[in-house]
Design goal:
Elements (H helix, E strand, L loop, with lengths): L3 H13 L3 H25 L4 H18 L9 H24 L7 H9 L9 H9 L3 H12 L4 H8 L3 H22 L4
């Protein structure tokens, strides 16, 4: 019976000979394993599974981009574990720094921020558009769909052509950026 080490190492070696199907199967299995590890670590630190998915993607990108650095005469799992460990450490530091500016609200609360009467009626809509336009395209689409048009994350994901998790992450990140930008400008700016 093949162990995970044997199966995954065999798939990585097969990728080097052009077997993309074996490599794709390895990446799927490895991603599922890494997802459990990362979610456990980040949940312990108080972060959500959405942050964990970003870290999983970082690990997969690192493994893919460095796959030719793995020495086929050595065990694969320690190499994979080292990449995973360092990506978790990097993410933990980054998320810890970002946590002080974090605002955790429900999807309905976020959407309500744009509909709230607390927003100054005198504020120029062009200012809001200018702030949104400064965001990356994916984040702009998420803010417009959820925040301005009132779409659910499921509807926004379908419109944007993305996953619900990716839309939530983009929306959350964009709102942090928008809040920081409005704080820099000051009240009534």
């Amino acid at each position: 019976m093949d162990t995970r080490e044997d199966k995954w190492a065999k798939a990585m070696r097969a990728e080097r000979t052009g077997d993309s199907a074996a490599y794709e199967a390895f990446l799927r299995a490895f991603a599922a394993s890494v997802r459990r590890i990362v979610e456990t670590h980040l949940r312990y630190m108080g972060f959500s599974r959405y942050e964990a998915e970003d870290v999983v993607q970082e690990v997969l990108i690192a493994v893919h981009s460095r796959r030719h650095q793995w020495d086929t005469k050595r065990s694969l799992l320690p190499w994979l574990n080292a990449i995973t460990r360092y990506k978790i450490i990097d993410a933990s530091r980054r998320l810890g720094r970002d946590a002080r500016m974090r605002v955790d609200l429900t999807e309905e609360q976020w959407a309500g921020l744009f509909l709230s009467e607390a927003v100054d009626a005198e504020r120029n809509p062009a200012d809001v558009e200018k702030l949104i336009s400064a965001l990356p395209p994916g984040e702009q689409a998420a803010v417009r769909a959820i925040g301005l048009e009132g779409a659910s994350t499921k509807e926004a994901a379908a419109r944007i052509g993305s996953t619900e998790g990716a839309v939530r992450v983009a929306f959350h990140r964009s709102l942090k950026k928008l809040m920081a930008a409005t704080q820099r400008r000051g009240p009534g700016a």
